Amino acid sequence: MSVQTLPTDVIAPRSRFWQKLRPWLLLLPAFALMTFLFVLPIGAFLEYSVYSYERGRLVEDFTFKTYLLFLTDPYYHAIIFDTLKMAAITSFVSLIIGYPLAYGLWRCRWPALQRWYGLIIFSPILVSVVVRSYGWSVLLSDQGAVNWTLMKLGAIREPLELVYNLTGVVISLCHVFLPLVVFPIFSSLVRIDPALREAAMDLGAGWWTTFRRVIFPQSLPGVVSALQISFTLALGALVTPAVLGGGRVLVLPLQVYRATSDINWPVASVGGLVLLVMALITVALCNRLLAYSES
Amino acid sequence: MRQGVEFVSVSKVFGGHVAVNGINFHIPEGSFFSLLGPSGCGKSTTLRMLAGFEDPDQGEIWIGDQRADGVPAYRRPTNMVFQRWALFPHMTVHENVAFGPSVRGARGGELNRQVAEALELVGLGAYGARKPRQLSGGQMQRVALARALVNKPKVLLLDEPLGALDLKLRMQMQIELKRLQESVGATFVYVTHDQSEALTMSDNIAIMSEGSIHQIGSPHEVYDAPKTRFVATFLGNANALPVDVESVAGDTAAVSLKGLRFAASVGAAPTNGKGDIVLRYEAIRIGAAAAAMDVRTKARIREVVFSGSAIDYVLETEQGIELTAQQPHIADEKPHERGALVDIGWQARAARLFPQK
Lengths: 295, 357
Fold this sequence. Notes:
The complex is a heterodimer.
Chain A: H1 2-5, H2 8-49, E1 52-54, E2 57-59, H3 65-72, H4 74-107, H5 111-126, H6 129-140, H7 145-152, H8 166-190, H9 194-202, H10 207-236, H11 239-244, H12 252-261, H13 265-294
Antiparallel strand pairs in A: 1-2
Chain B: E1 5-14, E2 17-27, E3 32-36, H1 43-51, E4 58-63, E5 66-67, E6 78-81, H2 93-103, H3 108-121, H4 137-149, E7 155-159, H5 167-184, E8 187-192, H6 195-201, E9 204-209, E10 212-217, H7 219-224, H8 229-234, E11 238-249, E12 252-257, E13 260-266, E14 274-280, E15 285-286, E16 295-306, E17 310-317, E18 322-328, E19 341-346, E20 351-355
Parallel strand pairs in B: 3-8, 3-9, 6-7, 7-8, 13-20
Antiparallel strand pairs in B: 1-2, 1-4, 4-5, 9-10, 11-12, 11-14, 12-13, 14-20, 15-19, 16-17, 16-19, 17-18
C-alpha cells in the first residue's frame, strides 16, 4: 500500500490546479467551434453590412444604406412580416398537434404502443430535408394522395391548394418540428408529481378540470421551450419554403440565399442580422415567459 | 342500514402479486382508524381502494350506505392527505384550499368564507397568499389537511402524512390530528408503518402483513393481547423464545425452556407441542421487584445499553436462556452493573404463547 504513504499535502496543490482547469479544457472544443462558426462570421456580417451594392458590384465604402433599406422599404417589411407570420403559424400548429401527442405518450401505459408513438414522433428527423420536402410536395399536389383521398371521400369537389403556398410550408415544417415540440412538453409532463393528478381527482375534479387547472399549468415550461424551438427554427427555415413555397412564400432566409447568389453581400448580411435579432428577441421573450410560468 | 366504512372480502392483485388478500373490516362512523404494518403489507393499497385510485379485483367497499367500489375518486365522499402532501405548486395556499369547493361550484364570498374557515382550523389563517414552496414541511402538512377538510368529507384518508416531518413536529401533529378529528367528527383512516403514531391516535388499529389483516382492536388490545405472533413481535420490542408446550388449558399453558418450567397466556395454541413465547422487554423485572412476579429466576447481565429514557439489559439466565429486559431510567437510581448476578421475573400473563413460525 505505497499509495497511502504519499503525503497528501504534496499532491494536493497540483490536483487542485487540475481540478480547476479540467472544466475549461472540456469546454475548449466548444469554444473553438463558437469562435470560428459564430463570433468570426458575425464580425464578417457586421463588416459586409456596412458596405453597399451598386450596379451588380460590391462597393467597399462605409455606409448605413442597406440598414436604411431594411428599415424603410415596404418590400422588406412585407418579407419580415411574412417570415414572422410563417414562424408564428408553424409554431402554433406544431403545438396544437404536438401537445396531444406528448400527453398521449405520457399517459400511455402500454409499452408497445409507447414505442410506436416514439417512432411516429421521431420519424421526421430520419428523413433528409430535401427528400421530405419533395415528398410532401408530391403528397399535397392537386393529384396527390391527400387531395385524392379527400375527393374520393366526397369531402371536397375541387382539389385544395395545399402546396406552393404557405399551407404546404407550414405542413412540412410542423412535420419535422414534431419531435422538437413533443419532447420538451413530454419531459415537463413527466416531471409532474403523479400525486397531483390524484389530488385533483380526489378533490372532485374530473379529467378536464384536472387537465385545465393542474396538468396544463404545470406543463407550461415545456410548452414555452417547445414554442421557442419551433419559432426560432421556423424563422431560419430555407429548404422547405424554397421547395414547398413554389416561389410564393418569400421568407427572409430565401432572400438572404438569393442575395448571396447575386454576390449582394450587404443585403445578405443585414438580412442575416435581422434574422439573428428576431431569434434573439424570441429567445429572450420565451425566457421571460419561462421564468413567469415557473414562478 | 350501514354506517361508517366497510370492506367485505376485498382483494387486489398487481400483476400476479396479491397486494390485498380478502380483507374484512368495519370502521365505526366518526372514529380514528389506523392501518398499521411494514412497507409492502397492503395498507396503502387498501387506502387507495377506499379513495378510488385503485379498484378492487374482488369484494365490496361501502362508505355509509353507498357502495363505493366502481365509483370514480372524484365522486366519493372521501378526501386524502397525501404522503408528500401533493400541494399544487403553481397555486397559492388559498387557491389550493379553494380547489375542492370551487370544483363543486362554490363561488365568491361563500368560497372565501369556507377557505378562511379551513385555514383557521389548522392555524394558518394568515398564510393564504403564500405559495407552497414558501412554507415549511409542517405548514404544508396543515395546508394539505385544510385542503381536504374544507370539503367536509365523510371519511378523511391519511397516507403516512407525518413521515416527512422531524420527530418533535411529528409528535405535535399527532396531538393536533387527534384534536381535529374530534372537532370535525369525520371518520379518519390513517395509514402508517410507525406503531407509536398508530398507538397514540387511534380508536382502533388494524395490523396488516402480506395483504392480510392479523388483528383489529383498540391500541391496548393489540398491544397487550396480540392474537398472532406477527402482531406480538411487530408492536414494541419483545423476546421470542422457542419452548416445549407441556399442556394447554383454556387461555393458559404450561411450557418449559431449558429446564425452566413456567405458565404463560395463550395467544394462539400450537398443535405440535412446540411453540414460541413472546415476552416484551419491559415485562421483565430486575432486582427486588422480581420477587413479586409469577415466574422467577436468576440471570447474569451481559450488556447494558443506555438509550435516554430507558436502559436495556441483555441477560443470560442460569438455565442459559438469552433475554433482553428494559427498565425505565430513573436519574437517581444507579443502573445494574454489567456482569452482576440479579433476580429477574415476569408475570405469567405477560408471556404469550404462539405456534412456531
